[in-house]
Amino acid sequence: MNLTYLIEGIYLVASILFILGLKGLSHPDTARRGMIQAACGMGAAIVGTLFRPEILHGNYLWIVIGLVVGSAIGIPISRVPMTAMPQRTALSHAFGALAASLVGIAEYIIHRPEITSRQPGHGNVENGALALEVMLGSLTVTGSLIAAAKLQELMRGTPIMFKGQQALNLVLFVTMVGSFVLWMIHPASSVYFYTMAGCAFAFGVMLVIPIGAADMPVVMSLLNSYAGLSSAATGFVLHNNVLIIAGTLDGFSGFILSILMCRAMNRSITNVLFGGFGAVTGTDTGSTEGTMREVTLDDVAVQLAYASSVVIVPGYGMATAQAQHAARELGNVLEERGISVKYAIHPVAGRMPGHMNVLLAEANVPYSSLYEMEQINPEMPTVDVAVVVGANDVVNPDARDNPKSPIAGMPIIEVDRAKSVVVLKRGKGKGFSGLENPLFFKPVTGMLYGDAKSTLTALAQAVQKV
Amino acid sequence: MNLMALDPMALIVSVFMFAQAGGGADTNTAASSQTLVLIASLYVFALAAFLGYQLISRVPPLLHTPLMSATNAISGISLIGSLVIAGSKHQGDHALLASVLGCAAVTSAMINVTGGFLITDRMLKMFHKKEPVKVAENKVEGKQ
Closest partner residue to B44 among A234, A241, A369, by Cβ? Predict the structure, then answer.
């Protein structure tokens, strides 16, 4: 009994350390220390759990296998290049949710006799939490795997739509929720339980396939939230507070991030999930008169060399071209000439929240040079050259000027207000969403075509020669 | 930065944790004590949700990717549920199945714990302030 209290005490300390860890993340200077605290909390909780009476009287074989295999997979996964962060994160949502959903299924298998013999009306909340855990967990597993496949380009990133999709989704959803309710009424009928789990797996797939890769920041945050909530539900099933606390923190973090991402695109979550956004084929491209002005590398180099302030606006194109180091190189060359260089980052640039910040930090850009959209926009009119590296929709002035545009109302980085704009772009094609971008046709804009990485490297060299 | 406002919150959460620890000692005896446990759990949930909201709103967009991987690692705490299932002695027809499911759950939770904390630390290591003397190191890492 004393041991039980000791373990509960360890769980309490772990919960506090987790909270301190997240508190540390409010500033880059304290973040690492916070994470070390959280990791200590995790270590203590794991060691404490190993001394629980159930395990002391059981055996450690399966535990050791799980811990060893898990570490053997987890450690190499933590070494992925930073450009692969979105995929890795999607995968880790899948693993987290898988753990929760497997615990739920195992709990059901173990406690089935007990659940069956319960008097009606008893244990409803536990059963509800168990079902919720398995349902949320299962749909997050498959949803995250699809998201990871799209991000890794194992699947095409454009929305996958087919006839009768909405009807099929509705049938799946109704069957899933129906089985949930029926199982709550008849907890002894495992057929309902497994139907629910099966439908949830299928529903997870259906939920993510119609979502375009450009909307991934929202989907990632939402899946993060579901994975957390299914962990929290596990806590209710097992009457374990540290699980509830950690799961809820994770759930709410994902929830808040998805709200922030939606706000940054001026869209609702339902619109992202059921809108099939990337399928828009540029129907409304009214304001695209004029021609694109192509500029040469040497012109741009001269322009940059004699500027006094330069803003670099990265987008997903920078990640695909692995151009973050080259961008930093150009930034360095400019700063050596006494030019002020700032990096302007849109909240939904890239494929997950904070994607661009991490890439630029990897390239050794100090975080004091990274500016948020709200910080940089008022300064835009005084900026001599804005260099857009592989960003498109986040600098599309149509979002501000054309109320009919599909992205109308989305806040943008207003590069078109700068004295001049240089857009680095792979080719003349449209952006990911298929929208025409009037920025490219403005008189202030010069288009510089080519691979972002080699263009930036060449620019850095050319500036040095000016 | 109004970080002080957070501390009373942590305190309240801890008080309810104690309440729960006391109530949780004798589960499975009477329905009424189960109800108490449940109410305590709901309190913990609601307070954790509120605290989570306060904490996460203070995280700057700069750190949103590390935040996501950090919360992922932290929610790997479901490992402790998996450990109990993998390590307990089960009875009945499905005893082996339960252990295997538990083992798989331990594996996937452990992937998140090790992978999550290591990669978060790796990312956070990269965030640094402007160095006073600029070093023009043209270190283009040829990583993939």
Answer: A241
Cβ distance of B74 and A220 shorter than 8 Å: no
Question: Cα A135 to chain center, whole Å?
Answer: 21
> For B75, which of A4, A96, A372 is closest by C-beta distance?
A96
Residues A373/B67/A244/A94 CA torsion (nearest 10 deg): 100
What pLDDT was estimated at residue B138? 45
Q: Which of B37, B101, B118 faces A239 most closely, judged by CB atoms? A: B37
Amino acid identity at A411: P
What was the pLDDT predicted at B23? 43
Best CA proximity match to A435, nearest among A287, A318, A271? A287
Rounded-to-integer distance, Cα B64 and Cα A458, Å? 32
Q: At A57, list the tokens.
A: 């009287």
Query: Helices H, strands E: what count in chain A?
Result: 18, 6
CATH superfamily, domain A297-465, is TPP-binding domain (3.40.50.1220)
Residue A17: the pLDDT is 96
Provide the terminal-to-terminal Cα distance of chain B, rounded to the nearest Å: 40
Chain A residues inside the 8 Å CB shell of B139: 325, 364
- What is the set of active-site residues of A? 393
Mean per-residue pLDDT for A46-72? 92
**A433 in Cβ contact with A214 (< 8 Å):** yes
For chain B, the structural domain boundaries read 1-58, 61-128
> Following DSSP, what letter does each residue of A72-125 receive, concatenated?
HHHHHHTTS-GGGHHHHHHHHHHHHHHHHHHHHHHHHHHHHHHHHHSPTTTTHH
- Model confidence at A415: pLDDT above 60: yes
Q: Cα(first)–Cα(last) distance of chain A, in Å?
A: 77
Contact B107, A8 (CB under 8 A): no
Calpha distance A207→A211 (Å, rounded): 8
**Cα B83 from chain centroid?**
15
Helix (H) or strand (E) holding A445: strand A445-449
Contacts of B140 in chain A (CB under 8 A): 325-326, 329, 457
d(CA A83, CA A277): 24
Question: What's the CA gap between B48 and B12, in Å, rounded?
Answer: 10
- B25-74 pLDDT, tens digit each: 444 445 577 778 888 889 999 999 999 999 999 999 999 999 999 999 99
B12 near A CB under 8 A: no
Cβ A7 vs Cβ A52: under 8 Å: yes
Q: A161: how many CB neighbours lie within 10 A of its CB?
A: 12
Would you call A66 and B63 a contact, using CB atoms and an 8 Å cutoff?
no
Q: Which residues contact A120 (CB under 8 A, 6 or more apart)?
A: none
Are A70 and B64 a contacting pair at CB < 8 A?
Answer: no
Distance separating alpha carbons of residues B128 and B69, to the nearest angstrom: 19
> Across residues A258-269, what is the average pLDDT?
87
